[in-house]
From TrEMBL:
It comes from Natronobacterium haloterrestre (Halobiforma haloterrestris). This is 3-isopropylmalate dehydrogenase. Keywords: Oxidoreductase. The keyword Oxidoreductase applies. Residues 4-322 form the Isopropylmalate dehydrogenase-like domain. GO terms for biological process: isocitrate metabolic process; tricarboxylic acid cycle. One of its GO terms (molecular function) is isocitrate dehydrogenase (NAD+) activity. It holds the Pfam family Iso_dh. Belongs to the isocitrate and isopropylmalate dehydrogenases family.
């Protein structure tokens, strides 16, 4: 069976780490057909469109998509691409690896980030020279759909339950609805939950990440808190993600374009290669996914390592080491 994979490197280091992940996928004994397409700042400068229609259509029809990074055009690229695969949840594991200098080496968390609404839904207006507004949308249906996924996810992970992060003491209507809908679904499934206010979560996860396992968050909170967790495990170069929809999915590193190092060939490819591991697992190849993870873990532990992890290796050196260890 051939799997059609859309490959959208985007901008900045996306153009370096995405080919690295494709190289790893090509080393597997799985029949992939890769279809590359453009999106982002560079194509917008050339054509006036950050997300050409053919790129959107490709993501909406491929079996899975591998995406790199978006810069200034993130809102015009990432959000429609997530919509193209009808993704309602962004799965973001934050794991500390042996050999990597982590602030909290005991960290092993997974964020399940609501992926369709909240303040990310883009309902912004400029009312006057002085006033801009944003309408925040939270629906019962999206919150319940996320909760159904979370219940299945904790069963697959053999986790005790999950933590709901919110700010319902202030955003009583929107986060209150989010919290209550999720608690209701968890109850129906007999899944245990606890709840933590998102500001308190930020402190508690820094002091003792071990108290959390699966964390369910509204959209923006999931974006911010997973980057915070990246700081606990050794940096953004280590966090993969999967945007899951009912029929297709899009995989991307959590990091952005990293303009400070783009073009130097030293970006850490681990986050994108780990995203590729999630992609093959999504397609049903658990052993291949595990093989990629083990090759990445051994490389993080034994080297070579890119400069963000204290090494001096290039993206290509690290990718070659991972492919060798597969
Ligand atoms: N690889 C994903 C990427 O480009 N991240 C940068 C970014 O702006 N992310 C926002 C988000 O994930 O919603």
């Amino acid at each position: 069976m051939t799997h059609d994979i859309a490959v959208i490197p985007g901008d900045g280091i996306g153009k370096e780490v995405t080919p690295a992940a494709v190289e790893v996928l090509e080393a597997l004994e799985i029949d992939f057909e890769f279809h590359e397409a453009e999106a982002g700042d560079a194509v917008q400068a050339e054509t006036g469109e950050a997300l050409p229609e053919e790129t959107y259509d490709l993501a909406a029809s491929a079996d899975a998509t591998l995406f790199g990074a978006a810069g200034d055009t993130a809102a015009d690229v990432i959000l429609p691409l997530r919509e193209a695969v009808d993704s309602f949840v962004n799965v973001r594991p934050a794991t500390a690896y042996p050999g990597v200098d982590a602030v909290r080496p005991e960290t092993d968390l997974v964020f399940l980030r609501e992926n369709t609404e909240g303040v990310y839904a883009g309902h912004e207006d400029r009312l006057s020279d002085d006033v801009s507004t944003l309408t925040r949308v939270v629906t019962e249906s999206a919150s319940r759909r996320l909760a159904e996924f979370a219940c299945d996810f904790v069963a697959d992970r053999d986790a005790d339950g999950f933590t709901v992060v919110h700010k319902a003491n202030v955003m009583r209507e929107t986060d209150g609805r989010f919290r209550d809908a999720i608690a209701d679904v968890a109850d129906e499934h007999g899944v245990e939950t606890d709840e933590v206010l998102m500001d308190a979560f930020a402190t508690r996860v820094c002091l003792d990440p071990d108290q959390f396992d699966v964390v369910v968050c509204p959209n923006l909170a999931g974006d911010v808190l997973s980057d915070l967790a990246a700081g606990l495990v050794g940096g953004l170069g280590l966090l993969p993600s999967a945007n899951i929809g009912p029929e297709r999915a899009l995989f991307e590193p959590v990091h952005g374009t990293a303009p400070d190092i783009a073009g130097e060939g030293v970006a850490n490819p681990a986050a994108t290669i780990l995203s590729a591991a999630m992609l093959v697992e999504y397609l049903g190849y658990d052993e291949a996914g595990m093989a990629i993870r083990e090759a990445v873990e051994t490389t993080l532990e034994e080297g070579p390592r890119t400069p963000d992890l204290g090494g001096d290796a290039s993206t290509e050196d690290v990718t070659a080491a991972i492919v060798d260890r597969l």
